[in-house]
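Dear H.,

Thanks for agreeing to be a second pair of eyes. The structure we're designing against is below in token form, covering all 410 positions.
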């Protein structure tokens, strides 16, 4: 037990207002991605990209999440969780700037840079929440998930107006490099505040017995987590709910435009979809322990997305309604997915590994959503077939929700 505790001993819980900084970090984990959807058509026109290429661009962040998430454990072990978060914030800002001002190549390179940095935050934020809010994991998960959703909704709402105000999508996207720099400065102060604790724990961390314990722990924790069936149920749920969110975040404005709504109204639909998730994410923790399991929460969070998919297929002109219904699902589903990672990990070491595995393979699954949607739009010349596939995926999420909500016996 001590070996697991020592594995990440150099990152101690903060106190007071320093603890709340994790929520400011969460605010910066989606804007760089969410800001693309409302200006995606403009980018396609300026760069002569078809929907297929646009779909590839929207899938890159998820592919980067899948590739980088397994490596976060090694980064955290090397430089610490808090220093990893600081590095991630700085790279998000740098990637945003490269995407906006780096020319044609910079769009792709910058996207890879900031998406890789966001992957670090995706994996480590649940770990920090479990560490600093050990007695209130569900509550903390709801709050930081709400912050993630709030950042995403704000970026989706402001992206198109900023592009109009500043003369193009490049300046609009560049704006989102500023907030992570501000939070990075505050996070650096948090690290300095904890410096005495870090120095005090260094002797324990570097002792031969601690090094031996970490070595033994690191060899066993991966095997234990990978052998557990629940790991793959959590991964499937993470992937399916992420696929739905990113597909709609990138393509809902296009769907709205195809029905006849103007660009500003389409942006409002996206804001409704993303913004309502703040409230559903804060409410869903109340269902996280019904009859001693999470089936009720997982299914309640998943079903509205299936309903929204059917609604967009059968009654597309009620898009504001379906944006609201789908938004209820995406906010709650994210909270459930992240809470399941924290709840199904038996300690901090296992939670880091489970978070890395679930987000790596989960986002690989999710990357197929926006990519396939764009390819199908280009191949069929409309949104009907892509929405049919989307609705089927939402149904699969409901099925997995029942399985993943039952606590593992292992």
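And this is the sequence the design step returned. I haven't edited it by hand at all.
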């Amino acid at each position: 037990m001590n070996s697991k505790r020592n594995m990440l001993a150099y990152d101690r819980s903060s106190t007071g207002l320093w603890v709340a900084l994790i929520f400011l970090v969460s605010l910066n984990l989606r804007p760089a991605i969410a800001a693309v959807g409302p200006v995606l058509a403009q980018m396609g026109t300026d760069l002569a990209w078809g929907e297929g290429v646009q779909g590839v661009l929207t899938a890159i962040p998820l592919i980067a999440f899948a590739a980088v998430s397994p490596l976060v454990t090694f980064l955290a072990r090397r430089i610490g969780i808090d220093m990893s978060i600081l590095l991630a914030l700085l790279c998000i800002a740098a990637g945003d700037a490269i995407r906006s001002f780096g020319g044609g190549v910079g769009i792709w390179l910058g996207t890879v840079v900031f998406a890789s940095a966001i992957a670090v935050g995706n994996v480590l934020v649940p770990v920090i929440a479990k560490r600093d809010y050990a007695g209130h994991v569900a509550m903390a998960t709801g709050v930081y998930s709400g912050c993630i959703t709030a950042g995403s909704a704000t970026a989706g709402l402001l992206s198109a107006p900023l592009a109009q105000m500043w003369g193009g999508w490049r300046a609009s996207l560049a704006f989102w490099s500023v907030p992570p720099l501000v939070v990075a400065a505050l996070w650096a102060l948090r690290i300095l505040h904890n410096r005495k604790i870090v120095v005090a724990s260094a002797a324990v961390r570097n002792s031969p017995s601690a090094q031996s314990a970490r070595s033994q722990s690191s060899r066993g924790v991966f095997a234990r987590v990978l052998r557990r069936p629940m790991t793959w149920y959590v991964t499937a749920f993470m992937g399916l709910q992420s696929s739905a969110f990113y597909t709609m975040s990138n393509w809902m404005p296009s769907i709205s435009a195809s029905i006849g709504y103007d660009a500003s109204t389409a942006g409002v639909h996206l804001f409704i979809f993303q913004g309502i998730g703040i409230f559903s994410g804060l409410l869903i923790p109340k269902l996280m322990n019904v009859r001693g399991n999470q089936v009720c929460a997982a299914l309640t969070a998943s079903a509205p997305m299936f309903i929204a998919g059917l609604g967009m297929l059968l009654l597309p002109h009620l898009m504001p309604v379906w944006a609201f219904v789908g938004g209820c699902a995406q906010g709650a589903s994210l909270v459930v997915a992240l809470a399941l990672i924290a709840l199904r990990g038996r300690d901090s070491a296992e939670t880091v590994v489970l978070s890395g595995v679930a987000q790596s393979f989960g986002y690989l699954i999710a990357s197929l959503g926006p990519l396939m949607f764009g390819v199908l739009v280009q191949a069929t010349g409309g949104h009907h077939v892509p929405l049919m596939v989307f609705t089927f995926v939402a149904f699969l999420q409901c099925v997995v929700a029942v399985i993943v909500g039952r606590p593992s016996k292992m």
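Two observations from my side: The radius of gyration is 21 Å. Residues 1-10, 200-213 have pLDDT under 50 and may be disordered.

Warmly,
E.
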